[in-house]
Amino acid sequence: AIWSIVKKNSYPQTIGIVEPWYPLIGNGLLFLGQTDVKKFQNLEKVCSAGKEDLFRLYLGEKIIFYTNDVNMAQKIMTNPNCMNRPYMYDFFNLNKGLFAAKTHLWKGQRKALNPAFNMKILESFVPIFCDATKNMVQRLDAIPAGETINIMEHLLRCTLEMLCATTFEFDVNDFAKIDEMLHGMESFFYYAAKRMLKFQYHLDFIYRWTKDYREQTSVHKFMHTYGMQIYNNANEKYTKGLLTNDQTEDGNNEGFRKPQLFVNQIFSNTSRKFTREEIIENILTILGAGTDTSATEVAYVLLQLAMYPSYQQKVYEEIMKVFPEAEPHITTESLKRLQYTEMVMNECFRIYPVAPNLLRENTEDVTLCGARIPKGSIFGISIYTIHRRKDIWGPDADRFNPERFSPERSAGRHPFAFLAFSGGSRNCLGARYAMISMKIMLVYLMKKYHFKTKIREEDLRYRFEIILRLDGEHLVQIEKR
Ligand code: HEM
């Protein structure tokens, strides 16, 4: 207890401390024994109340240097010495994959994988995105008009289908274990988040005795076995020289003749040789980082449009103007013309950032707010709070208003005020992939259906997780247009 107090007083006043604080448990009372909704609310409350640019949140003895300030966020997220993942990211069990990898591994992997989703490659994915969306629409068509459905279930299956097809040419519709796989995707973030806030579970020898450990291990085993099968298939093709990717573009230099599958790109990468484990963990990382996130964001957009019919009408009209045909001819270029739809999407990502909190670790000492912060410290960036700051977004920051993202109002905004896809060189690798695939989902869904909901914005509550999880379901009614 004395050591706790000494440690607490070893930082200057410029780095405030979250209250109530107690020796040994720190700010643990904000989370221990609380429901997931209360955990989210408590964290959000302390983050919005943080008056200093940087303040300390104590999980037991562990300090997280939190910020809700855009300049501080920029300083941390662009500092090459703050690119590491803290030990809590080991809870994902995928630390040889890009998302959770420590800096020494991450640097080379990221450099090699940055071109994996360039614009030409994304263009080659458009037909896959369209097919997966059409399959979803077919399933929705079978639902009686006016029936209340959880749209998230349908979107998750659709994004999984997209990710599987573009990552390793796999049609999930042929897969008997699709439910296990969907469960695997949702579990990716669930168990890691649960363990993060139960700091007694940070110790492996305690966690190993828990039910969560057994469940997480079983899901991980299932996914890992699956990742191994994908690896073996690709490896066989690779060794026989049968990889299906075009390594060259077609004669007109207009793009690739075939979709450039992620697994094949890793195998044939010339700038870095990936080990077997790295390939498997990156396949699972891309699936994990891409499915639930994109599905959740589209679910929020649809819910929001269902709550605000006038915005839904404007999005519909724009989509019909750009794609009047019954079977839209979609390209990455034509999607750029959906400017109002993009404003609506961005405004939804602002209010509902799928990653409400990010963590980073410094690999060298850094000086911030006049204090030397030793290497190995943890930084937290509260994106949820930054996105709702009244001094940046105006007094109505809590309200939905897509006009905030009009070109005029966006001009001159701080580059770290909007962090839906994070910032700096460790930002989201799949941001453009996500935007294109999500827009395609909206095109087909809006053209075909009118969305309604009984949910009101003021009733929305969130659960503490790595991703912004609605407490309850994204319940909507769909009516054919
Ligand atoms: C709406 C959809 C998405 C959102 C909002 C989103 C958001 C994010 C955020 C905020 C991060 C940074 C995490 C951090 O700094 O700690 C991230 C990382 C990442 N995302 Fe996304 N993401 C989305 C979709 C995707 C998709 C579709 C893919 C893949 C196709 C993807 C792949 C990744 C990867 C690999 C990383 C780790 C990057 C690294 O550590 O270098 N994401 N994403």
UniProtKB/TrEMBL annotation:
Subcellular localization: Endoplasmic reticulum membrane; Microsome membrane
Pfam families for this protein: p450 (PF00067)
Oxidoreductase listed as a keyword: yes
Segments traversing the membrane: none
Cofactor(s) demanded: heme
Assigned keywords, A-Z: Endoplasmic reticulum, Heme, Iron, Membrane, Metal-binding, Microsome, Monooxygenase, Oxidoreductase, Signal
Membrane topology (UniProt): Peripheral membrane protein
InterPro entries for this protein: Cyt_P450, Cyt_P450_CS, Cyt_P450_E_grp-I, Cyt_P450_sf, Cytochrome_P450_Monoox
Domain of life: Eukaryota
Similarity comment: family membership: Belongs to the cytochrome P450 family.
Xref: PANTHER family: CYTOCHROME P450 4C3-RELATED (PTHR24291:SF189), CYTOCHROME P450 FAMILY 4 (PTHR24291)
Function text: May be involved in the metabolism of insect hormones and in the breakdown of synthetic insecticides.
Protein name: Cytochrome P450
Taxonomic source organism: Aedes albopictus
